[in-house]
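Input sequence (660 aa), recorded before submission:
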Amino acid sequence: MSKRNGSTATQEYEGSVPPPKRVAITSNSEHPVAHISRHIRACTTCRKHKIKCFMDDAGPPCRRCKEKKLSNCAVSKNLQTIIDEKTELSEAMLSDLDQMYTAVKEMRSIMGLPELPPLQTSRMNKRKDSSAPPPQESTILQLEDNDGPSCDNSPKLTPEDDRLPHAPIHSLYTLTRMRALRSPGSGNENPSQAINDFISQGQISLADAERLFCVYRDRLDGFIYSIGCPYKTLEQLRRKSSILCAATLTIAALHDPAADKVYGICNSELRRLTEKSMLQRQGDRDYFRALSIASYWLSDLSWTLSGHAIRRAAECNIHNSYSLAIKDQSEEAMDSARIWSILYICDQHLAILYDRPAIIQDDWLTQDWEGILNCPLATDQDERLMSQVELMGILRNIRRLFGPDKGEEIPRLYLSQIGHYHRQLDQWITKWTDRLPEGHPNIGAFPRKGALFHFHLAQLYLYSHVFRGQSNQIPSHFLDTASMAVTSASAIIDILLTDPDLSTSIVGIPSYLLSMTAFAAMFLAKVSHKYGDNLFRRDQALDQITRLISHFRSLSMGKWHLANLMIRGLETVTSLLTSHGVQYKVQNAISSMMPGNEATQGLEDVYNTNPDMFTGIDGNTIPTWDTTFGLSPIFGFDPSFLDVDGYMQSMAIFPNTEGS
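Predicted structure, C-alpha cell format:
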C-alpha cells in the first residue's frame, strides 16, 4: 500500500469537505451580529479520538458511547446555541420587567402618586419583533390576585446585616415579605398632566380658591411658624398635594367672613380625602403637613387627625427627624423635624384640653431642640417653634404630676411641686422674650406677645389644679395659689382686650388658644359665682366677659370660627351673673316636674318654656349646675361632636311624656 502525499491528502480533504458557512444571524434590528461558526454535531469523546460520531436525533449519548457505556458523552455548545439561549433569556427577563413596571404603575395610580418615567429598555423593545415567544405562564404576574397583603421586594438580609437590635416587626417583614410603610418624600408634579380636584370640578371657583390661598399664605401660615404652605402659588399646591390644598382652603375659609358658603365645600372635601387616605400607603411630608394644620385649627377634627397623623408619621420614621436633621443637615430632614414638632405640640394641646393621655410619651423625642436651633438651616421661625416645644414639655410634666381629674383634692405636699413649675415657667418666659424675634412680616408683634399669652395660659393651667375636689371653702394653704390662678385668668382676658397685636390675632390663632380663653372666662365666672368676693368679685367677672363679647363681635371672621361660636355661650354666662331671677326660673321649672304635675306639663313643654335649664351644645346652664373647675369639656360640649350643619343647635331631644 503506497503512501499518499500529505499535501495531496490535504487537498482531497479540503475538496471533499465544504468550507464552513459564515452565516450572519440578524435580529429584528438593522445591526448585524457576529458571524457564526459551523454547527457541531459530534460529541466531545468522538472528536477527541477523531472517529465518526453517530448521533441520534434525540441527542446524546451517541451509539459508540452508549455501547462503551461512557457517561461523558456531550455535544459542546457552539456560538449559535449560546446566542439563541441568551436571546430567549433576555426576552423573558424584559417581559417580566415590563409586567412588573405595569403593576407598579397601576398601584401608584391607585395611591395617587406621580407617574413613573418610561423604562429605558422600552426603546429596545419597540425594535423587537412582536412575534417573540411569550414567557411561561408561571412567570406572568397575576394582578387580579390582590386580596392578600402587599409584599416587600427589599433585598434579603445577610448574616452580617441581621443585627439583633431590630424592631420585632422586622422579623415578620423578613419572613413574610410584607411591606412596611415607606416615606417616599414629596412627589414631583407632572406639568403636562391636567389637575383633577374639587376646584377643576367646579365645586368652588378658581377665583375663590386663589383668594383663600392668599389669605392662608399671607396671613395664617405665620401662626404655625410658616410650616403649613411651602408653595408660592395655588397651582403648585394643587399639583403637589390635593389634601394639603383642601386643608389650606378649609382653614382660610374658616377665618374669612366672605367664605361661609365655601367653607362647607372645602371642609367636606378635606374629610373625603382624609377618609380615603386612612388605609392607603401614603406618607409624604405634604400629607402630614395637611393633617398638622387641620389639627392646629379645626377643633372638630383635631383629636382624630392628630392621633392618626402621629401614628402614620412614626411609621414613616419622621419621629427620628430631629437626630437626622442635626446629623445630615438636609432641608428634607429639617422640614420633617418641623412637622414632627407641630404634631407634638398639637398632641400636648389636646391632652390639656380634653384631660386625656397624650400619644407622644417619650422624652427623648424632643429633648434636643437646642441642637436643631444650632443647625445652619434654622430660622427665626424655628426659634418660635422650639420655644413651644420646651413649653409643652413643662406642661406635660405638670399634667403627669396631677394626673386625671378624679374629683379628689390634691395633696398639700404638691405645693412644693407647684412652686417648682412656677419657677420653670418664669425662666421660660425670661429666656424666650429675649430670643424670639420682635416682629413678623405677616403677624406683626405676635411672636413675643404670643409667648406672653402662652405664659399666662400655662400659669392658669398650673394653679387651677388647687380647685380640684374643693368644697365651698378653699383651705388656707391653697389660698395664695388659688389667687394666682384668678390673677392669671384675668390677665388672659385683659391682654386680649388691651394689646392691639393680640386682639387682632384672635382671628388666626389656633383653636387651643381660643379654647383656653374660653376656659379663662368660665373660670372667672365660676369663681365669682361660687366664692363671691373672697377671690373675684362678680361685677369684675361680668365686666371682663362683657367686654370680651363686644370685642368678639367687632372682629371680622367666618361664621364657624370658634370665637364667633363662643359669643352666645358667653352672653348666657353674663345673664346668669346679672339676673337673680334665672335661678328662680329654673326652680319653678323643676317644681313643675314634681310628682303630681306630669299631667299638666310634659318635658317638651318645660323645655319650650325654660330652655336654659337643659344643657345643650351652647352650655347655657353650666354656671348654675356645674361649679367644678375641670378644663374639659369646654362650655359643656366636646368639640369633636361639632360639624358644619350642627353648630349652635341643641343636641338634646325631649319627647312629650303626656299619656305615659
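Checked by second reader. The beta strands are 23-26, 32-36.
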